Amino acid sequence: MQNLSLFDRLVLWVKRTKSPLPRALKKALQFIEAPTIFRLPKWLAGPLRAAYEFHYLVIPVCRTVITVLYRGPLFQSRCASFGRNVRMDGQMPFVRGHVQIHVGNDVVLGGRISISSGAMFDKPQLIIKDRAEIGWNSQITVSREVIIEEDVRLPNCRISDSDGHPREVDLRAANKPPDLKDIRPVRICRGAWIGTGSYIMKGVTIGEGAVIGANSVVISNVPPYALAMGNPAEVILRDFGLPSTAKRKTPVE
Q: For residues 129 and 87, what is the distance between their CA atoms, to the nearest angstrom?
């Protein structure tokens, strides 16, 4: 107790003492942390229900106005090309560096997306093709090229075409940039679905219609219509998620 500050001693006194004043303080603190809701009289329920609905109407309306008049135009001005009917949910993407961003038609962008680029190449490119969806909290690092094709879904993922540092320990310690040969483009082909929390590493191509399980780390190519998962990700199933219109061969009798 001798080494405790005055405030710490006061906290211990409130926790340990059983007298009425500390008990009252504890009850007051518990009420502040988790207040008890009193029952409403019936005549107030109707008006307050209207207020409840109005509360959750005002928030999206205000967010829509800000996005249409402010966030959307600002982000569009940062892009090299920008398609039609692009939707933005929440905050506009944060972009760092000189990456050229191409956004296709009907793309959906979630909130808190981060896009950054290295200085090793003159024109690093991020290409997001038609109808792709980039979910909330996704992070994309582009030192050379990242291509996200049509109808790709990737919620809360990490994509990088570079490690961001050299592999040699002495060069890392000296804060040297990575070797150009260690910066390799990433391509996620059309219709692929990347599970939440996954990492797509440099040089990887994910085939058309492939599915990556949640929290996977993908360091090698994934074939089309395959299910891959794990760290590092491995192909678990092939011919997975084929289109419903795909023709299946029937055995010849």
A: 13
The Cα–Cα gap between 205 and 134 comes to 17
CB-CB contact of 202 with 186 (8 Å): yes
Catalytic residues, by residue number, are 165
Q: What is the mean pLDDT of residues 217-231?
A: 96
Look at strands 125-128 and 139-142 and give their pairing: unpaired
pLDDT tens, position by position, 16-33 = 777 788 778 877 877 788
Note the pLDDT tens digit of each residue in 188-208: 999 999 999 999 999 999 999
What's the predicted TM-score (pTM) here?
0.79
